[in-house]
Fold these 4 entries.
Entry 1:
Amino acid sequence: MPSIGKVNYISFDQLAFEISDFDSLEFNKDGEFYFAKGILDYVTIINKHNDKFIYQVEKIEDKEKVLSIGENAKFSYIANVWATPVGMITNSKINFNLKSYPFLQDEVYLTTNEEYQIIFGTQGEHTLNLGTIAGRFDAQIQTSKLLTFHSAILGNTGSGKSTTIRQILRAILKQNTNNLHIHVFDIHGEYSEFVDRELNVLDDYSIPLESLELQDWINLVKPSDLVQLPILRMAILLGNALKQKKLNGIWLKVYIAYQAYYGIQSDPVAKRTKIVGILSGTGIDVNQYDSKYANLSPENEKKFVKSLEDKMKELEPDSLKDDQFLQKQINQSFYVVSSFDDLLTGLDFVFYLEESKGNSQARNYSATLETRIKEVQSRYGKLFSGLQIEKNNNPIIVYDVSQLDDDLLLFFVSYISKELFNYNKSKIISSRDVNVLLLEEAHRYVSKEKDTSQLFEIEIFKRIAREGRKFGIFLWLSSQRPSELSGTVLSQINNFLLHRIKNNVDLDYMSKTIPYITQNQLKRLSFLPTGVMYTVGELFPIPIEITVYPPDEKFDVTQTPPIKFNNSSN
């Protein structure tokens, strides 16, 4: 094989050589035709000891060389080529950590097909073929390296993200596994072809309300962190205490009225109206305490208060002796309710309790919380019907979440993620499944703005990012806006499949959060053609570009519909 140049500059991270004989850039060897492609091409440097160093071309510049001096001086043109280190081939194996480097005047050659095989050949029988490398070598990826690490598939709209995901899913279906489950949260209805029946979340799925934990309720009804969160916590606990008979509903009403009698310092008529309303259905005689009477005699006042005390003693004998009776019952309760009505009942009691202490604004401040609970109940009540569905053991499970708003989307995805995490965590290592969570449009819910939220909405994703590997739970984040993704989650990603990204904000954010990528590689992202991805991380020891196999146009649901013009002209 002819040499194409000699090394004239070398450093730890870069090498340069000159090309003066351009005819040497095309030749035939052993029936294989070779030609230099320029930028991103690979070259092999061989030193006097026959060591082989692999470099990748990153820059080429034109340069004139003076052949003679004088008015009629002649020039020849040479190319100055800059390349970055890839690895060193020793004993037909590639070592990606260079322990030595080429030297000045070492010969430079185009990399041969045999050397490509050594560099990119994947060992093992379980591999996925996603496309081609350098237009001449299959991009074989070890299934375990792709599926048992957290991954991110990032790129602008139209850059080929969905095509890459579909190629991965298509390849996975060809493999025979018995404990792999990929959960696809399909926002745009693009993945139904991979399953016999896509799960329409609102029609085909059901979540028992009793299975919701406090964090699930927070994600579902979105309380404000300053005022509404404590109200929601107390409402759930009260709803549980009443349902589990830890508290008697009538006793609680009478107790609140009793507290209001001594605690509310307001207009007497308004105070009496409030107390009479609270005592409705308790059996307490309020005829003489009605708000239409301006004043009561001291004797009737005493009788009324005594009737409250007697009722409380009758229903809960210890309540008058123990000032902390109510709080103790609440402390023994759980953040579990079995219906929206139980939650709303608990919420109403919380408002009454706050008002009995003189906090007249609690109900107003939490009006949006109550509205959200009622909206979820009326709009998405079917999702919480409690009817159990049969567990899906298919390798790919597709959830149609296209009808969910962003808040309910976050709730649903985080709920499923938590359930899978807890289920796998409860099993011994040998019997754990491998669950991969493919989060489409991940920036809509695993967002940077929620990283520091006091509501901890994305805590389950952070936990899976940190601990998921040992429990067999893995995240795949797909997004067109990397700068809006949680930095905490993104920092734990091991594989990045990067498509074209032009936005400077996104590129800057990626440079700060992705440890595997360099500034030159980030610049390249802006110029990637559609369908080409830059792969960095655990999949390959070096960053490489893969041209993903294009989809069959008949089944390409991601293509933009063409404009149809009439044949007639105006």
Note: The mean pLDDT is 87.
Entry 2:
Amino acid sequence: MAADWGRDLRTYGMAPVVDRAIRTLLGDDPDSLLAPESYDGLRSPRERGYVVESTAALLLKRKIAQIEAGTIAVCGPRGAGKTTLLESSVEDADFALLAQAPATYAPHDFLLSLSVQLCETYIKHEGYEVPEVTRLSNVRRALRRAWTRCKRALKWAAFAVPALALVVMGSAAATRSVSTTRTEEMVSRATQHVEALGTLASDTWHGHAAGTAVSLLLVGAVWWRLRRATRWNYFGRIMLVATATAGLLLLTGSAVWALVDKDVQQRLSGLSPGVVGNMLFYLAVWRLCRWAVEENWRIPAGFLRDAARKYCPAIGSLMLFILLIILLRNPQTQAILAEEENPLRVALGLLGLALMRAGAWEPRPAEPALVTQCRNHLYRLQTTQMSTAAMTTGASQMLTLGTTHSTSISTIPPNFPELVSDFREVLGSIAGTLKRRGGKVVIAIDEVDRLGSDTQALAFLSEVKAVLGVPHVHYLISVAEDVGAAFVRRGLPHRDVTDSSLDDVVYVQPTVLFESRAMLARRAPGLSDPYVMLAHILSGGIPRDLLRYGRHIMETREKTQSDELVDISRGLVLQELAETLAGFRTLLSKQQWTPDTHEILNAFRTLGAHLRGACPCTEREVQFALEHFAIHSPEELRRAPHPALPDTARQLIDEAAAYAYFSLTLLDIFGSEGFDRRRQAAEALGTNGDPELLAEARQELGLSPYSARPLISAIREAWALPLLPHPTTRVIPPPRAHGCAHRASRRTG
């Protein structure tokens, strides 16, 4: 009764009270503290172990499963995870290549590199060494080969010699005993068999054994017929089977001999259950480790599989060592091991194991024809081959007249059509071979959008589409959004190369909030939801930027020496705004300016000075300067248009002002107390209060500042933020000239 009462008190009494007390101490925003368990995943953005399967990855798997062969384009904005998606598809395939598209348009060089990579990958896939095209001298090559063989021999001897010495030492007494008692009998039987064979051979030679002579003739004919055996002769196979059978009989006989021994049976019955349980446990763990290092033991996560293959051999050896200690130190097992006939039994068992291993031996199969074809193709692609033949006629001593003929032949490097034909032939053979094994072939081409414009990307596709469409091969090509859009609007009203090159398109869309939560939960466990929202909104759902802003949150915490959302969000947003405005000012410096338009550049410079000196002391001044820039700059241009101002500069100013408006909204939402309460109130008003809409506004800024501004205004209204009034002055006041008291106190402290 007391135990039940204590359990109920902890569950229903103490736990809720402690939870309420902690939340009361934390204030209105209990999740505003930045206290992640770790953020190693943010510092390793390319680490495969942190990858979370996305919606686009599942869609791509379904599309690959629906077609036996074809070309699928993976399109999306930069940083959306196209490369990660291709790498995951390559890992899932049985045979795959991941090639990078050239930065400059060179289809011949790209296809040449892809052909070399194809041949090298397949040779490695089949377990053979890639030939060294860059040849060394004969002496250095011989020395390298000799050194390799010496290292292999030394490694083998380091284990073979001690093992042989121990086995000989342990079986010496048993061998001497057998040789002493059985030598005369064995010699007598061998002599009888030799004499019988000699008599049979003599009778056959003199014609007194006709049946034996006929049998020998038939055996000779059959032996000659076996010369055409494709792998190895049947006699050798029979001998290996007999050897393995003899080994199995020896091993089984030694075990049965030990089990039927009455003394051994008596001592085995005296073993305690604890000793037997320990032995079985260590044997089970050893066997489990053996399974873990086998290729057929599938573990879903890649890093777990690598860890198992790395540490399981050492763990298995440790289990065997502990088992050996138990056998040697336990008095009960010592009595069993001390039986006089055990050395002979163990020796026979080891001999049986050796014969079984010898019976399982098979000669290394000949190199497959497809591997040879890839090897020859590599030499053709990477070398210039020359053949010279010479012939001399005449006698140098008896005749004074002689003739010499010399011929030199050099191969021509393959041109583009021939290269395409050879690539399709080799890849088709590889795909057909793997198809018969039930495998899947994937060729992934990444960074096609790195070529520049969509025109260059389409021109690249029009050239390399000659190698597409190989049976049983899936091509995955990452392209920019405009190339994917060209495929979607095929035939409306024009047709381009995407219509004949691509079979399907997978759009890698920016992540939504729950996907960003999953990604950051894997890479930075314990990161609270407001910081996930902040990183998601600033990145606009682009995974690469999401991880970058996650790292920036950690950097801002170190910079501000604060764990509060208000301080970290304000420092992060102002830093990003300062860097963005500096970039806009660099672009504006390339435009033509007049004395009438200097106020625009002064506004950029003054706001940048406010942002660089931002601290708690100047919070109001920075807020006013940012409000002035976000609302005044575009309205000033519309109210008093400058004829001398280029349209490009006007567009850049509108974009900078819209981004400042977006940053100001983030400061108002995240940079003040009561975030959870205000978030709940905003979500209750409708879709405009959804935090996901802020990420959409960030995406909209990449399209047009004119469509982004109304969306940001609607968000401000849903979050009960004041719409910005018109500033009372046309210029941004300059920042303070004196130093910051807050920074001075921090430096003093």
Note: Residues 138-205 form the longest helix (68 residues).
Entry 3:
Amino acid sequence: MTLFSLAQKNIQRNLSNYFLYIASMVFSIVIYFTFVTLKYNDEISALTGTSQKIQGLMNASSIILLFFIVIFIAYSNSFFMKKRKKEVALYSLLGVRKQKIGLMLFFENLVIGLISLVLGIVIGFFMSKILLTILVRLMGYEVVANFTFSGQAVLNTVVIFAILFLFTSLQGYRVIYQFKLIDLFHAEKQGEKMPRASVFAAMVGTILVGFGYYTSVTDIFTSSIWRFFTILGTPLLVIAVTIVGTYLLFHSVSVFVLTALKKATAWSWKGLNLIGVSQLLYRIRGNAKSLSIIAILSATTITAGGAVFGIYYNTESSVRLAMPNTFMWKGDTVDFSQKDVVYNEALNVKNLRVDNDFAFFEYTLLKESDYNHLAKLQGVDRELHVADGSTILLDTTYDERFSHDFTGEAFTLENGESFYVEKMYTESVLNFFPAGTVLVVNDQEFAKTNAEDMVMQAVGMKNDLKQQELSKVIYNQLSPEQQESFSSVPQSYEDSMAGVGSLLFVGSFLGLVFLAATGSIIYFKILTEAEEDQAKYAILNKIGVNGKQMIKTIAGQVAVIFGAPLLVGILHSAFALTALSQLFNMDITKPVIIGMLAYTAIYAIYYVFTVRSFYKIVKQGAK
């Protein structure tokens, strides 16, 4: 029997153990191959002028993805090597030379890598059409992508992953030279170094995480902490203290909680609770570093995904707030089809130059009658009545944290005229570009004001987001000066969706890869510990503990290992996303909840799969 055939038999025999490892690698290769394929895809270039930015985004994302995959595969491979050390020791005991054992492990890892690579590229080729269609739909284009085969993408993927799998195979080859025979037999008993819990560490961890939470939700423009550590330094500080605090929480706080449960005899002496909490106490302490990393990765994934999904979710409302009219421009009207036109108004406005104590700006002066007429056409339930010498200011960019409230103050024009600001509203009836901030005065004051007269066209359409072709027709008829002031809802929406949609695509699939990797890492760790617990569960089975009680205990233990980093990650991301929503003055509650539920649901699949595999292992040991 050759070493290659022996490696092949080992893979077939341990296929159930390798399945999730191979599946996670295949999934990672599929996503990487798809990103590289998109980088060389011409369809995106034909659809949008932002193709250069998207290509840059795909390049950066593929590098991030590759970096994470390298860590994941190296980490997972180390767990499999630990699991195989006893087998390696047995081969050595039977007289097989270390060189041959090393070559067998080398071939075995190389075969697994090549199988994953081939499957990943084949599946990636067929998935590329689906993923490309998802991308262009997220970008707002209603097209179906074609199958795309890129030789460059295949070559790129093969070279990168061949080097990676060669490295992990050499790692397997070297493992037998790093340990003595007795060490290999006792490898399964060698866990991570168990950190010692302390009251001081628990207090410091709680304080650090609390400080990170408090700082993240304080106002960036008014907080003394943000001023002291600066806008760039404060986020780095928050990230650093949260990471250290999270480790200390798993290192100490979780130990105190489990110890308290163990001492609560009314609970611990029920069923197998004492056994379960004792095993958890060891595993939480022994796995503090791993669980902390997984919690931080979960928080990062949920935060990034929630932020991008929140912006994507609010894209339309953001565009409509800044552009209540479908089209708007300065100057005369042009000829275009009147189909789906709700209104087409030529507005006489005046351009104001306002000189005050704060800054020097240009504003648009609008008649009260024109405002009320346009508001009625737009369905705005607000009618204005402005007193002589007064004005009502409309500013869609107003933010109380850093914008000046002019209510109750006088506006002084460059020509010496002034208006008393009666009220301010954050909604307008004119598009911010080209109108800017708008001052509404009554018709008599408008006629008396000595300012530059101009005509502004305002067009409202049905199905305004679908009017890209009409937008091009109007734009092409405008003079160069008019084109500079042209404002288009469908064009702005399309540009926003192209950028944010591509970010959502990248963020979603990177998040899935991170989730698959973290879920797999927990899976590998728990199954390694399950094999160590076979003897314990065999004893329990002999003294009358049935399968139902065993699986209940196993489910509880695994739930804590999966749930602890997930809950901490969700809590971290909740504060981070609260800070982002405050910063951008945007309600992202709904998309964030959807994202968290989706993340939890996928995590739950890993949990169920892990519980079943754990029970299968200990059940075999009981037999």
Note: The mean pLDDT is 80.
Entry 4:
Amino acid sequence: MNKKKMIRLTALVGVATATGVVAEANQAHAATTTTTETTNQTTNASVESTQAAVDAAQSTFDTAQTSVDSAQANVTSASNNVTSASAALSSAIANKEAATSENIASATSAVSSQAVVVASASQAVSEQAGVVSAAASVQASAQAEVTSASASLSSSSANVASATSALSAAEAALTSDQSTAANNLSAAESAASSASAAVSSDQAAVDNAQAAVASAQAIVDAVAEVQSSDVINMSVAYITALKNYLANPSSANAAALQEVAKGADYVKELQQKFKSDASLDVVVDPSDPTVQEALSVYAVNLINHLRNQYGLTTAFGASANANVAAIDFVKKYYDDEDWNIFGTTGSDGKGHNKNGLDAYADQLNTSIAEDAGSGLTTWVNGKATMATTTLHNLLYAVYSDIATMLFDDGGTNNWSHAQSIFEDGTILGTDGFNNVYLGVAFDKYGYAHYELYNATEGNHLGNNAYSLDVQTAAQALLTNAQASLASAKASLQRMTTNLMVAKAAVVAAQNQLAALENSSANDLVAVTKARTQLASAETSYQTALATYKQKEEALKKAGDNLAAAQASLEAAQATLATAKAKLAELEETVANLTNADQLLAAAQAAYEQAVANLTTATGNLGAAQVDLAKAESQLALAEDTAEQAKVRDAIAAQVDQQLNGSTANDRQSAGQDATSLKTNGRALTATVATASAAKQKQGANQGRLPQTGNDDQEASTMALVGLGMLGMATGLYGYKKRKLTK
């Protein structure tokens, strides 16, 4: 529905001049009162009459608006009907043009063919319905078998529960003393078994400790002789040649040194001087702290003896901290990284892990140099084989490596191993080796690593220093072994005592159980019987369970078959529905072609009727809009008249209030009142003029509407109140606007 806004402006009523107001004010008080009452009655009646006219005009306007809305809806509907009828007419014309005998014959033939398709699809639906019915019968039978198997399973489960309860009752019938005795016997036997195992374990520990003591004693007996005999002595000529070469590594000095050293043959000669003692053929762990101490002290003593021959007074040291650092470095940068320094043939290895050395030097904040040797491997036909790890092998590996570094280190190494042994304050040209401590470690491939650290107060590598007396290290090994033997013997003694106590407890428990079993034979028979019944019930339950699972699987298969048959039936039904729809479409085509003339005539008539209906609806809408415009104009006129009546009513009320305030004693000052009223009239007239000017500006281009009511009565009333009261009333009530929205 369209919305409209109407703004109505109320016109001011013409009034008498100020002179007329003064003349009327000079009338007697009684006469004035009478005139005021008459005016009030007149204005009140006018307000009520004009408001009734407004209400009637509003009602007429609303009715007209409703008529317009209804007529507009009819026009819209009629227009839509014309559009639909036009489309139907076009379709009927096209159908008429297509209604040839050939097309009708072709469409009729298509109907016949499609009828055959429908009949075939209908037959397929019937056949598949039979398949579904058969599958449903099989499924129902399988469901019945599952129900029966489930009942049998429930019965078997109940039998198991009953047998279990009977067994519990039979077992409860046994005296608590017998149960306690059996538990005591079991606990005693378990304790005896544990005690026996502990004794066996401790006996093995004692045997191992005794063997370790024997080995340590052998080491102590032999190590003093090894320490004194396993030294490497250099000739004066070799020392001189080595000093010359290290001072000036020229080709001539290198050749002279190689000549004096006599190459690999002299190394073999030195290796043959190693003291071999049967007491050293004991298996040891290379990472054992005591063995580590012995190896590092042995190596440092060999090196310091060489440095003394060379003329150096500063000696290398050995410490537990340096050994721990060497083991940690080799594990992290050789074992964990699978870094084979020599490889499998001695020529295919990776060499020193230089990145690892740099990283570890940064970690310890010190300088590190590394020498490496064949260690525990013996070179046979160019292949490395791991030797047995005995103390003899370890000491020989250290001795052989240091000897090889002195006399068989030519070629690409340029005697760098010998240089690392005989330099003072530097190693291989690197400063910062003023307090060298040696750590020895073996990697997982069997190769030996000799790590040279510069020890400082900050890195603590010199802490926990070893005595360089090998005898002291060997004696520590013996002391530790003896302490381990004493501890093992004490533990064995405790476990032997515990075993004796446990065996006595087993005998006592057996005797108690035997005595109780003789007095409760019947209860034991009942328990045995109950156990047999329970086993039988459990067997029956398992059989019933297997049958139930079998039937349940058959039911699932039958359900799957039924679902598949139903799916096939639905597919056949869908095919039939499609065929029927196609047949109906073809039949409709035949009917349309056959009845083309009648359909065209009907469509033409419907179209013409729709056009006629639209014409009628359009005319009705125009008439309703004319009526709405008239009602709108009448409503505006009635509202303006009502507004003017309200203004006159307000002015009359104000005059009555002022005039009724005078008394008989005030009449002598009537002339003064007239003068004052005249003055006030001029002031109020000025006020009215200002308001009128504003109203004129606000209502520009608005036409003055015609006045309503009794002109004589209105003039008489306004003559009494004057132009001043009109201005006052306007100030009190303001200017009103009426808005109508539809």
Note: Confidence is low (pLDDT under 50) at residues 1-30, 379-384, 670-742.
